[in-house]
Design brief:
single chain, alpha/beta, two-stranded antiparallel sheet
Length: 154
């Protein structure tokens, strides 16, 4: 797994969102895009992380930042997560994990003694020109939004 780093050009992608509409990175020209990869909708850690971003949406929007959550969940699972948690940003379905692969966040994981392939919980801030400005890979789900805002406000 070769994860992208700050300074790299972000891979162009198009994925279906919660309404099964295609969303592309190129749709956000002139804005910063916060793409956060999460393992599975409606699980405890992913819910806490999404709630933090939801609650920070006004501050993020004021900083010209669009939020996109990406997981290997099927499209049909995403509207339930958005509705249940009252999320105010799009979630994208990357079922074949091609985008996760392109960003270098799909790979071997260990949980409770088992090894398996999955998404690593990593967030990328992409600048207005399509370059990765910052990679957030050290955070707790509960304070993820605070780490992102602290970076953006400095």
């Amino acid at each position: 797994m070769q994860m992208l780093k700050a300074g790299d050009l972000a891979p162009q992608f198009s994925l279906p969102n919660e309404n099964n509409q295609t969303v592309s990175l190129s749709d956000f020209k002139g804005k910063k895009v916060l793409i956060y990869f999460y393992p599975k909708a409606m699980t405890p850690g992913c819910t806490i992380q999404a709630q933090g971003l939801r609650d920070s949406q006004t501050s993020l929007a004021a900083l010209n930042v669009e939020v996109l959550g990406v997981s290997p969940d099927a499209v049909k699972r995403l509207p339930k997560f958005i509705e249940k948690e009252n999320l105010n940003f799009s979630l994208l379905s990357d079922e074949d994990h091609a985008v996760a692969d392109a960003f270098g966040v799909w790979g071997l994981k260990k949980f409770m003694g088992k090894e398996y392939d999955g998404i690593h919980r990593i967030t990328f801030l992409i600048d207005e020109n399509g370059k990765i400005e910052h990679v957030f890979d050290k955070f707790k789900t509960k304070t993820h939004h605070e780490v992102v805002l602290a970076y953006l406000q400095n």
